Amino acid sequence: MSKYVELNEKTVVEYVNNKMDFFAPDAEYVCNEIGDGNLNLVFRVKDTKNNKSLIVKQALPYVRAAGEDWPLDIGRGEIETHILNIEYELTDGLVPKVYFYDADMYCMAMEDLDNYIIMRYGLLDYNQYPYFADQISDFLVKTLLLTSDVVMGHKEKKENVKAFINPELCEITEDLVYTEPFHIGARNDMEEALVKFHKEEIVEDEELAREVAKLKFDFMNNAQALLHGDLHTGSIFVNPESTKVIDPEFAFYGPMAYDIGALIANLIMNYISTKASLEEGQLRSKHEKFLLDAIRDVVDMFKSKALELWDEVVTDKMAKTKGFKEYYINDVLVNSAGVAGCEMVRRTVGFAHVKDLDGIANDEKRIKAKKENLHLAKILIKNRAEIVTGEEYLRLIEKYL
Ligand code: SR1
Ligand code: MG
Fold this sequence. Notes:
By secondary structure, the protein is α+β, with helices and mostly antiparallel strands. 51% of the residues lie in helices and 12% in strands. 43% of the residues are buried.
């Protein structure tokens, strides 16, 4: 830690210029700390004269959203750099380009996506992204299938499993997604009006706990593919033409379902938010239709593209057996529905919420929306064996929301 100092808006320009030859000598700098996630400092450094910019992301030795009482592995940017480089290659640039990682300052610099916005905020402004489902399903299929044992040499894949061991960040997910929200206390956070509902509907439902336990141990023990590990709509940059995935610091070898389920859950929560926040009318119908199409297409495109790519890239002899690929992808989709349910529960009653739900201004509507979210989440977890098509998601959304 000896060379580590926290950067700030004043020191970051000199820091970057010492590390790389990026800005012109006559640069006129504007620098802002723009991080709004739970963990890191994020700076945009811009030369307004020559219109050039980059992003500097520095890890803190603790969880930013909680303060210094919650220490956290400060070396997580190394894993993030490593996976961004891999994903850049695998996906033809569906992630930002990394310029450098500095292991003394626990800091990375990367391409600035300044004509993109964080998808969560775009969706909360009721914007639509017509190519999103196609692009993100490409990202999912390529990053997941191509890093799995279906395709990679098994020894090389095991080396990858070793390189991406990420115990502290995984522990956050094990606790915050798969454990605490299904109990009372810990770091859970919810409105008073949800306390009784949470206890009766979530904590006291033993069948639910059993299914969540199965999903938790799948998360911990199924080193299936190199995951992003935190693929919510706050980890995705979009504009109407293009999609870029950021922030894979929770990366590790885990079940493919974890990335797919997290994404589906966050689209569903935006749907719930839209329904609760807008009066019926054209804007609401248009946004709801976009979200429903996106949910359906993410599921169905993941499935069809994975099955198609499989034949081109499969190397394992047994994985070529007739019928195996359908079994394998179906299993991924079953658990994706379960993960989606866990993500929806934890974003409602756990430590880290989402603006989609918390931002519903009217108290009564917000509590109603959160209860509906929890209710649908339970259905997704318990009935996941049947939830393997886009249409089935839409049927459940129509029935329960
Ligand atoms: C303590 S970190 C809380 C959450 O923020 C991250 O984005 C992950 O989703 C994590 O669970
Ligand atoms: Mg993040």
